[in-house]
Design a protein that fits this description.
single chain; 230 residues; alpha+beta; Rossmann fold; 2 domains; four-stranded antiparallel β-sheet; 12 strands; globular; binds zinc ion
């Protein structure tokens, strides 16, 4: 069954995200501190210096912006060993092996705690308010990942197998942040994370921001939905 969820408008989503936040908060997985970081607006995430190439975002080729703000942090560091073991033991199977190894290399050096929400003032009027702190809204990585669960918690929990099929640019979110979030909230983990490369045009990633997008419906008309998915 296909189930598309619009996370900005669907009440089952916002209620689910608040519940996940509370579950993590009960475990003491959030704390507040001042934060300074390099932020790519295109990726909507902070980067470490060594994530960048010549000081630029790998995905967007732009220099991230230096941002200083008060922020809530999630204790990702607390889950580093467990996430590493889950991927290393193939309890969460990363496919293909090169992507699995990329995840293990990333986790091996340890994980820094990461900011979850952003100030409501920087959210363009959108976002789910942090329970107990309306000055902050839950940031896109946390809330976007949560949609797999919030769309239908019973189906997520009861599935025989939970499989993500994702593009290579979001491996870290799915293989590191997402399992940590689920461990924190006491929810079931994914079983397989299958990672594909990008469809390209003239060797460049297809992206709205690059202006080289191809309308998927035209492709579906010509080749069929399954061929395009493949
Ligand atoms: Zn970027």
């Amino acid at each position: 069954m296909d189930d598309f969820i619009r996370t900005s408008a669907d009440e089952r989503h916002s209620a689910g995200v608040r519940e996940l936040w509370r579950a993590g908060a009960e475990r003491g997985d959030f704390y507040r501190r001042s934060y300074e970081g390099l932020y790519c607006g295109g990726c909507e995430q902070f980067y470490r210096e060594d994530d960048l190439v010549d000081g630029r975002c790998r995905e967007h080729g732009v220099e991230p912006e230096l941002i200083v703000e008060q922020n809530w942090f999630f204790r990702l560091s607390r889950y580093a060993d467990r996430v590493r073991d889950l991927v290393a033991s193939d309890r969460i199977r990363g496919e293909p092996a090169a992507r699995r190894n990329e995840v293990l290399a990333f986790v091996k050096v340890g994980l820094a705690d990461i900011s979850v929400p952003r100030p409501a003032a920087r959210s363009d009027g959108w976002g789910i308010p942090v329970p107990g702190d309306p000055s902050q809204v839950v940031h896109v990585w946390w809330d976007a990942l949560a949609n797999y669960l919030t769309a239908d918690p019973g189906r997520w929990a009861g599935a025989a197998e939970r499989v993500h099929v994702i593009g290579k640019g979001i491996v870290r979110f799915h293989a590191v942040h997402w399992p940590a979030l689920l461990l924190s909230a006491g929810e079931a983990l994914p079983d397989v994370i299958a990672v594909h490369d990008y469809l390209t045009v003239d060797g460049e990633k297809i992206a709205k921001s690059a202006g080289n997008a191809v309308a998927p419906l035209d492709l579906v008309e010509r080749f069929g939905a399954d061929a395009v998915r493949w």
